[in-house]
C-alpha cells in the first residue's frame, strides 16, 4: 500500500505487517530499526555468517549495532535474533519471501533519526571482564521509557547513582564515547560524573543533567517523558528498586535500610512507547536486552565467581500475538533470559489493562455452518492504522485451513474476502473509488506457533495530509465463513484488535477500535461494569483472553492488578484465556496471571504512589504496569534464597490453590513499599 | 492578589486560576472605611448618612482652634508610615523610575542610571546600566525548534503557566515565608521593584521591537494569549529573576542565619529561588510566547535591576553594569541561568562568549552615593520582617 492509496503489486513477503508499514512511508533514504530472525536449524547461524552472506550492495544499507559484541556475533544459534539499523530499500529486500532464506522474519521498528546514530561506534572486545558487586546484590533490570535515573530514590548518595548502566536509544550519541550505535550508553562512572557536574549549591540541576545525558533535548525531535513531572519509567524503576539515599558520611548503606539493588536499565524510544500497537517494539527491545546482557552476565557476587541474580521488569503490554508464548516478545525474553546459563533470572510482566476494552472475540469453528459476524467500530479522528489479528487453532492442516475465509465489509458497504489458501496470500481493501485503504492477508506461522493468522490492516480514519487514503470510520463487519466438509473443523478463531489508544503525555493520535455486539453486556446490577464473562455468555466478545500478548511466555511471572480497598481485581486487569480446544500436537497451554498485587488504592484513589520524575517528588500511576514492579521488588528480596523458578516460588509462598484464578493467579501478594527519602 | 496592578498581562485575568491565594485580598480593606475588618475590628460598613447625623448629635458649639500643632517634617521618609500603600507606591515609583533613562542608537537599546544630583538646578552624570541588542531574525528562526520541542510538555505545565500569567508571587511565597500579615513591607518592596522593572523592560521591548514566536510560524499556536509587546527581553524572565535576587538580598540582610551561605557550604535558598525564576521563565517558552533567548536577556536584565534596587536602597550594595548582544548569542543554545549567575557568590558572569564573540558582560560597580531615603525606609522595614530573635534579645520583660 502507498500512502495515497495507489495499488501496487503484492509480492510474497515474510512479514506482511512490515511490508504494509513500509508501504505507508515514502522511501526517502530514511533509516529504520528492524529485528531479523535468523534460522538455520541444523548447524545454527551466527550474526557474522549472516552479515557475510549479504551482497556488498546491501551491506552499506545495513548496520549491526555495536551492542552485539564480537563474541556474540560469532556464536551460532539455531534461531538467532539481530536488531539492525537499515535503509528502507534493504528491508524490502530482506523481507522478500524468496530472498535470504536464513532470514525467516523481519519485524519493523521505528524510523531512526540519523542524528541518533554514531557511525563511528566500535564493537566491544569479546574479552569479558567480570565486575564484582556486593555479595548480597540483586540486579534490578528495568526496560521502560522516560527513566529518571537521577531520582534520589535511585541514588545511594548525593552524587552516586545505583544505576550501573543505562541505555537511551532515541538520543544524540556522545561522539567521544563510541560505545553505542543507536543513542547512548552511560555507565555508573559517567552518570556520577554528570551528577557531580550538575550538583550546584547542594542541589542537583536535574533538567541540566538530563540535557547532558541527551534525554531532554527540546531543540530536536527527541521527546522523553523525563521532561514531564510524571514518567512511567521513573515510577516503575523506583517501585522495583527505589530506596532512600544513604547519608553522605556513611559507606555501609545497608545499615540504613538501603538494599544492594544495582540497577541496569534501558529506555526505549518514545516513538516505540507511543505506538501502543506494539508493532514497532521488537527491534529496540532486542537491542535493549542485548546491551543489558552485556553487563549483567559479567556481574559476580563479591569475590566469588557466582553471577549476581537478576530481576527483570518489563512493564509493557499488548493485545496482539498468538497468546501462546510463541510471540516475538516472549521468544526474545526466553532467549536473553537464558543467555547466561548459570545466572538466576526472574522476570515480571503485567497481565495488561484490557479487560474491558472489547478488543477480543472468539469465533467457534465447526459448531454451525452459519457464518459468524463481528462488528468492529473504528472511530473518526484516528491518525494511526488499525490492525486486527485472527488466529486459527493450533495444528490445522492446510486442507482444513483452506476451508476458512474471512470477509471484511466497510461502513460504505465495500466487501473484501480472503481464503486461507497456501502459506500466505493477501488482498488490498479498496474503497468505492478503487483506492487502497487497507489490506487483508493470511499467513501460516510454522512451529512452534503452527497456526494460521488473518491480519486486517486498515489505514487511519484521519490525516493532516490532503492526499492520504483514509479508511472510513464507523462499523466494519467481519464475517468468518467455514466449509464443513472432509475432516472435522473444530476449535476457535481468536481475534484481537491491537492497542491503538493515546498514552497520557504523548501526542493524541490514536483512537482505539473495539468490537460491539448486542449480546455483550457491559454493566450489571447497580450499573457496575461486568468484569468477568457471564456464564453461558452468548457473546463472541470476551473478557477472557484479554491477557497481554507479551505475558504468555513460559518464564516470566505475570502480575495482575488489585483494587486495594475493594479487595477485588482492578476492573481493567486482564483475564487469562479460557482453555482452548486443541487440534492434536503439542500446543502451548494458555497462561494465567501468576499473582495479583495493588494497582489502585481504591475506586476513588486511583493508582499507587512511587517516584515522580524529579527528585523529592512522588506521583500516582495505575494499571498493571505499576503492579508488576511491586512484585519485582518482592522478588528481589527472595531470589537469593530461592532454588526454584520464580513461579514455583511464588505459588509455594502463597500456598497456591489447585486451580489458579484467571484474574489473580495464585492469589494476592501484599508487598509493602515504605516511601521515605532518607535525606 | 496584593500586588498593585499595572502588569501588562492583567488584561488576561480570565486565565488566572490561582484562587487559593485570594487571601491577599484582605489588603483591599485599606481602600476606605471598610478596611477595619482586616484588623479584626467588627465593621459592617458605615453609610455616610450615619456619620452626618452622628456629628450633628454630638458636635456641640464651636470650640477655639487648637494652638499647639507641630508641623510635619518635610520631605522626610518618616511620613511614609502615615501613607496608604497606594500613595506610598507613587512615592516609591517616582524614586525608582527617576533613576533611569533610555537611549537607542544603531540597534542598541541602553538603560542608564543616574548619578548623584548636584546643584540647586540638578545636574548629574549617567552611567551605563545595561545595553541590549536584539538577535537577528535568522537566529530566532533557529530558536523556533525549541518552541516545537517545549510544546510537547504544555499539558504537563498548563496549571503553572496559567497561574503565572500574572506576577506569580505565590510561587515565591512557597520558598520565602511571604505573607501579607507577616511580611507586608517585603511585599510592598518587591511590588515597587516589580513596577519599576515593568517600566524599564517595556522600554527595552519597545525599542528593540523583537517579533513574537507566533509571527514566525502558524504552528506555534501559543496556549495563552500572546502579549502585544515585544518578545525580547522576556518580561516574565526579567521579573522573576529580579524577584528572586531581590528577595535573596532581603533574606541575607536579615539576621536570620539560615539564609546566609555558611562558609564553604551551599546556598540552598539562593539556588532554589533561582530555580523557581528559571522555571517561570521557561514556562513562557513552553506556552509558546517566548524564545529561549528572550529568557536569557530577561534574566540578565532582571538580575541587573535587582542589584540596582538593592544598591539604591542601601547605598552600600554594589550595582551591575551589564550588556547583552543577541546577535552574538549562540542560537543553538537553550536558556540556562547557571551560565549567567552564581547564587552563592551573588555574582553575575563577567564575560560570556560564543566563540570569539562576546554576548554578555557584567561589571560590578561601587555604589554611587547614599541610599535613596524612601527606598531605604522600606528596605529597612522589609529586612526587619525577616529578623529572628530569641529570649536573650528581649529586655525589660
Automatic annotation (TrEMBL), chain A:
- Domain Peptidase S8/S53, first and last residues per copy: 138-636
Can you tell me which residues the record assigns to a coiled coil?
none
Q: Which GO terms describe its biological process?
A: proteolysis
Top-level lineage group = Bacteria
The record's annotation in InterPro entries points to: Peptidase_S8/S53_dom, Peptidase_S8/S53_dom_sf
Q: Sorted alphabetically, which Pfam families does this protein's record hold?
A: Peptidase_S8 (PF00082)
Give one GO molecular function term: serine-type endopeptidase activity
Q: Which Gene3D superfamilies match?
A: 2.60.120.1290, Peptidase S8/S53 domain
The protein here is known as Peptidase S8/S53 domain-containing protein
Q: What is the lineage of its organism?
A: Bacteria, Pseudomonadati, Pseudomonadota, Alphaproteobacteria, Rhodobacterales
UniProtKB/TrEMBL annotation, chain B:
Stretches assigned to the Phosphatidic acid phosphatase type 2/haloperoxidase domain? 191-312
Q: Which Pfam families match?
A: PAP2
SUPFAM superfamilies associated with the record: Acid phosphatase/Vanadium-dependent haloperoxidase
Cross-referenced InterPro entries: PAP2/HPO (IPR000326), PAP2/HPO_sf (IPR036938)
Q: What is this protein called?
A: Phosphatidic acid phosphatase type 2/haloperoxidase domain-containing protein
What organism is listed for this UniProt entry?
Candidatus Rhodobacter oscarellae
Q: What is the phylogenetic placement of the source species in the record?
A: Bacteria, Pseudomonadati, Pseudomonadota, Alphaproteobacteria, Rhodobacterales
